[in-house]
Amino acid sequence: MYRTFYNSKVSRKEIDQEVELVGWIKTIRDFGAFSFIDLRDRSGIVQLVIKNKELIKGLGNEDVITVKGIVNLREQPNLKLINGDIEVIVSELRLLSKASLTPFIIDDNTDALEDTRLKYRYLDLRRPLLQNNLKIRAKITQIVHTYLDRHDFIEIETPLLCLSTPEGARDYLVPSRVNKGSFYALPQSPQIFKQLLMIGGLERYYQVAKCLRDEDLRSDRQPEFTQIDIETSFLSQDELLEMMEGLLKEIFKEIAHYDLILPLRRLPYLEAIDIYGSDKPDTRFDLKLFDLDDLLRGHTCPFFNEHLRGFIVNNYAHKCTRKELDRLNLEAKKFLSSGLYMIKKENGEIVSSLKKFFSEEIVNRLNQNLLNEGDVLLLGYGPYMKLSMMLGAIRKMLGDELYLYDKNSFDLLWVVDFPLFEKRDDGSYTSSHHPFTRPKEECLAYLDKDPSKVLSNAYDIVINGYEAGGGSLRIYDKNIQNKVFEILGLSNEDIKRKFGFFIDAFNYGTPPHGGIAFGLERLTMILAHTDNIRDVIAFPKNLKAVDMMSNAPKSVDENQLKDLGIAVTKND
Ligand code: ASP
């Protein structure tokens, strides 16, 4: 027997009793006549008291030991520990495994470089913070399983080796040895399969599914990630969203003890862009965008003919110096080369590099009608969409930097009614979601006239400014599907090659269906209050998609390539 208790579970109830414990040595502190060991296991830490120094001769941090001892009430409790009021006086100690000196100290407050932590991930994983994140992740999937089971969903696994799926990112390819020259694609999502399951009559499907997308990585993106993937037949959009809200309610209640007020707000996409400059708005704080055309029109200004939009930040005038504006512009100009301008009210005066363009009347209007002392109006000009997105990005940046919301709060909403298509610069169309998304009934007439006006039955769940999930109702009418393919510029040949088998399936009786996929990592990040996706994955890749432990990806043996009929022509 190794243990009679988890370390953090030993409590006052066990005083004067003998316990057996096991774990890693976090620290040894020598006090001459006796020593203290902080012993760590998955549950937490317990303090051991060693009176017989012989027992710990040669021991060091991260050694695995098992001990026997008597629980004692501490004279000076350690308030930082759950069981800081007790300690264990050790009578027997056995070394189970000796540890070498670790490359970094195992503690939540670490200054080790992330690449070092990823190289020794098994050590990094000993940090309580990461263990807690993984516990949250496991709890979410456990709630998902019980909730969806209760609502008649069937868990079904779909293949990893398949034909390319339509999420629009680059595929990871797997060469086939048996069919040389042919490749499988790893699924970007189980999209096609889950729809085929609906045609297959399964009615309600879900899966905790691995998805693989060969994209440039960011702090919230990994090449492989996990979706809680869901599809149902015979539900309206409202019924589906309501059911998903129920699931979110249970997750937030159980994990964060947070009561979601249902139904969640539904914000049409066009409004989200107009007010927040984002299709995933963080609505924990205000800073709403508005049009300035009316206010500033009628004066000589270089951007007279453009859209003019902006937002007001209170109590920011003293901070918003030239230098600060230059800093904001580093971000703003990624969206719009004309950048960001400011007009502020300081000591009762309007201050701005634009002031020279304004008539006295406009200065008065800004001063008397719009700005209060300390206010800054951040504004820009340009095409409506790019301008709004630019302002939205700065809005979010300032919201975070100026602490305009409570970090521990949660804000959930649905963004709905996305446009079905996005227009590329060359005038062609791509799907905003994917080509199987159902247009809104009332927009069908626009499919022929002006596809950019067609709205869809697509929805995203947005939490604290993250897109935590998204989905849509699907087209189940062949004519509409063909029309959409046509607008996307797909020839019959393309359609046959890419998803011929899938389109064929629609000939045999297709139920109205739709679904959603939640990003498990994003949900976990939000609930664990981290903005680094690698903090919620046991073995993540770094920003160059490298597994720092094994150094994958790596070159392979000539023979392996020969078997596959592949020759590598270029190495990095
Ligand atoms: N497959 C979609 C995605 O990964 C989700 C869905 O439409 O259900 O975004």
Topology, number of strands: 22
Mean pLDDT: 94
Question: Strand fraction band?
Answer: 15-25%
Query: End-to-end span in angstroms?
Result: 52 Å
Unreliable stretches (pLDDT < 50, length at least 5) are none
The largest pleated sheet is described as: 8 strands, mixed
Helix content: 25-40%
Give the neighbour order of strands across the main sheet. Answer: 6-9-10-22-21-20-17-11
Shape, per Cα inertia axes: globular
From the alpha-carbon coordinates, what is the Rg to the nearest angstrom?
A: 29 Å
Q: What ligand species are in this complex?
A: aspartic acid
How many helices? 15
Helical/strand content category:
alpha+beta
Write the layout of secondary structure elements.
Blueprint: E1 18-30, E2 35-41, E3 44-50, E4 64-73, E5 86-97, H1 114-119, H2 121-124, H3 128-150, E6 154-155, E7 173-175, E8 183-185, H4 191-199, E9 204-212, E10 224-233, H5 237-256, E11 265-268, H6 269-276, E12 290-291, H7 293-296, E13 307-313, H8 322-335, E14 341-346, E15 349-351, H9 360-370, E16 376-382, H10 384-401, E17 412-416, E18 421-423, E19 429-431, H11 446-449, E20 458-463, E21 466-473, H12 478-487, H13 492-505, E22 513-519, H14 520-528, H15 558-564
Parallel strand pairs: 3-5, 6-9, 11-17
Antiparallel strand pairs: 1-2, 1-4, 2-3, 4-5, 7-8, 9-10, 10-22, 12-13, 13-16, 14-15, 14-16, 17-20, 18-19, 20-21, 21-22
Helix pairs in contact: 3-5, 3-14, 6-10, 8-10
